[in-house]
Amino acid sequence: MATGKSATNPCFVLFLFLLLSFLPELSSTSIFPEEALPTKSGYLSINPSSSSAIFYTFYEAQNPISPLTETPILIWLQGGPGCSSMIGNFFELGPWRVVSSHSQNVEHLSVEPNSGSWNRIFGLLFLDSPIGTGFSIASTPQEIPRDQYAVAAHLFAAIKGFISLDPLFKNRPIYISGESYAGKYVPAIGYYILKKNPQLPESERVNLRGVAIGDGLTDPVIQVATHAVNAYFSGLINERQKKELEKAQWEAVNLVQMGNWSEATHARTRVLNLLRNMTGLATLYDYTKQVPYQTGPAIKFLNIGEVKKALGVNESMVFEECSDTVEAALHEDVMKSVKDKVEFLVKNSKVLLYQGQYDLRDGVVSSVAWMKTMNWEGTGEFLMADRKVWRVNGELAGYVQKWGSLSHVVVMGAGHLLPADQPLNSQIMIENWVLDRELFAGKENEVNMLSNFRGSL
Question: What is the CATH number of domain 28-218+291-377?
Fold first, then answer.
């Protein structure tokens, strides 16, 4: 029965206060401040007759050193297959990283600036590819690519769609980069662009200038055969284990030679599982880590309704770091090589291959093995080129080997997700490679630098 006086129970008020104090703050200003929002984000159609689309986030250069119409755009593709580039964005090389803190046993998520972001002087575009990955949409499972040609065709449509969004994008130099399984995506789309461009009017061409592959799976049949010798000479397994691992590797190689692609993929998985069990490592992605990469906070962040709304994503979508459906669709593609596409790209653009020192899956030994077999007239000269010591602020950062259009970098103190481990050095590496500076300078630049140095004496 209502009365003129308040009948609120003081105990209820206290309970309500305590309940509200433990609820997470959901306002976009607190968890995702306006200054952290992408310059553009949303969806890029891959086919006019389908609702399938690739999700993107784009961050304009923070401090461009050239007019925006001439400022390079870096495109980032994650690996997997089926892992989202939003992990690259919010955990590795984007301008803002998700961080987690705890108070009174409650986790609080926020974002903080990443001083090693790759959009310091370049535009930076993240694409969730293939469709069905991350926030990208596959209208039917049948539309998800099952080979690299289909991946590249979708990416080409998305990149063309992105360029058409703003007149400022039309003629800007484009560099495509990515890591892990993107060691196949990157050469595939680079090759596709260079083959497609001559068939298009000049105004519709994609201004591709180069590709960069980090810790990539590119020529799997050669790379799978390196795990035993790599682990043995790293002191992680003994002679008997080395022979056991070599036998498992041979089974994977033999299945490839037979054209049994599905079983070859299973055989590679057995090799990696055997290596992990032999070594007892927390992760093959970085043999120095006691726990795997901690991407959990970024995954939680991307599942918050206000974050999805701010990015232009339907709030009902559930974000997954990696898609089992996409991985299954590309199962028979895993052991197929794209080395021929890298060979084409190194002859017609420029290529950067880089690895983290501690990566046991797709690291230095794995990559150098297939690089030695490249069908390129410059392979011999590249293999004989100086491997130069690379220092940043006086400290050893790694090693750079370059000849002609091919550059190879080993980054010290880094694993598979290299930009997460060495943000500043990865930023310097990509900037100097794009701009042909310092250890990435061509012979003409090296002569000019030497001349300038002598003139200053």
Answer: 3.40.50.1820
For residue 358 the two structure tokens come to: 């501690």
Preceding omega of 423 cis (within 30 degrees of 0): no
* pLDDT band of 101, cuts 50, 70, 90: confident
Spatial neighbors of 249 by CB under 8 A, at least 6 apart, are: 224, 225, 227, 228, 271
Q: What is the mean pLDDT of residues 348-375?
A: 96
Residue range 3-61, pLDDT digits in tens = 333 333 444 333 333 333 333 333 334 688 999 999 999 999 998 888 999 999 999 99
pLDDT-derived band at 442 (thresholds 50, 70, 90) equals confident
Can you give the residue ranges of every domain in the chain? 28-218+291-377, 224-279
Which residues are within 8 A (CB) of 371 and not within 5 positions of it... i.e. 6 or more apart?
353, 379, 382, 408
* Among 16-30, 226-240, 364-378, 410-424, the least confident range: 16-30
Q: Are strands 123-127 and 106-113 parallel, antiparallel or unpaired?
A: unpaired
CA atoms within 13 A on the CB side of 451: 6
Query: pTM surpassing 0.85?
Result: yes
Instruction: Copy the structure tokens of residue 435.
Output: 């701009």
Contact 68, 167 (CB under 8 A): no
Closest residue by Cα to residue 124 from 153, 164, 96: 96
Catalytic residues: 180, 359, 416
Summarize the confidence of residues 323-345 as an average pLDDT.
97
